[in-house]
Design a protein that fits this description.
This protein is mainly α. It contains nine helices and two strands, in the order ββααααααααα. A two-stranded antiparallel sheet has the order 1-2. It is elongated, with a radius of gyration of 30 Å.
């Protein structure tokens, strides 16, 4: 069974019949996708190009909508980051975020239920960015021991960039933080294995335990007031990793 539709001729603006099968598939006179059973007087390349474009419109529309949503979300997180830097986590409101982003509050609520949801998403993005930075540092030049020091130092300096509010504590209890800690622990464990193989790190303690020691010890960097102090802390932690240390 077939159905007929009228497509205006590009040049005459008169309708021309297009016949489609029940399955909805169409093809041109030479098997070209887009038209089926079109009378010969309508066999013009414009028809086939137009129908090929129309075929992809739903996909293009979906991609455009998704790109717009990502742009709004990223802009919202960027605005939130700026507001947090200016006012602190606990002082940020949905109205401020909407105004800084340039969208209405109703639109903002379509993306996030409340301020904490925005901040969790922002913090998740921050944590992901820190992990990528540490991975880049770990792939830098030098031996395993040198790269291990660089990663631990970068982690310690990042830990100094903290916020002491109650909301910050809530954010750090999020599931994304636990997942990030697991990834970081495995990453540092791999560096420790590599360093142990070259004799730069003790091998009498499992690397996973040493990685846990490093991460827990370096959380103290959050209470230090200078980068120099954070680097001294890293040196103390590394001293406990040296071969022959009791």
């Amino acid at each position: 069974m077939t159905t007929r539709a009228m497509i205006p001729n590009t040049f005459t603006q008169r309708g021309g019949p297009v016949v489609a099968s029940r399955s909805g598939s169409t093809s041109g006179p030479s098997g070209e996708s887009g038209v089926r059973d079109i009378p010969s007087q309508y066999h013009h390349p414009v028809y086939f190009r137009t129908l090929r474009i129309l075929k992809w419109v739903p996909k293009l529309w979906d991609e455009t909508v998704e790109a717009h949503r990502r742009a709004v979300r990223d802009a919202t997180l960027d605005a939130t980051a700026a507001l947090v830097a200016e006012h602190g986590l606990a002082s940020v409101t949905m109205s401020q975020i909407a105004e800084r982003t340039g969208i209405g509050r109703a639109t903002l609520y379509k993306y996030f239920s409340d301020v904490e949801a925005v901040l969790v998403a922002w913090h998740e993005r921050q944590v992901g960015g820190h992990l990528r930075q540490l991975a880049q540092v770990g792939e830098g030049p030098g031996g395993a021991g040198q790269r291990l020091r660089a990663v631990l130092e970068a982690y310690a300096l990042t830990s100094q960039e903290h916020h002491g509010s109650d909301l910050a504590a809530v954010l750090h209890r999020g599931t994304h933080v636990g997942q990030a800690q697991d990834q970081l622990s495995h990453f540092i464990g791999d560096l420790l294995r590599e360093a142990a193989a070259t004799g730069e790190v003790r091998d009498d303690v499992p690397p996973d335990e040493l990685a846990s020691y490093c991460l827990h010890a370096l959380t103290a960097a959050g209470s230090l007031l200078s980068k120099a102090a954070a680097r001294r802390l890293v040196s103390v932690v590394l001293a406990g990793l040296r071969p022959g240390v009791a």
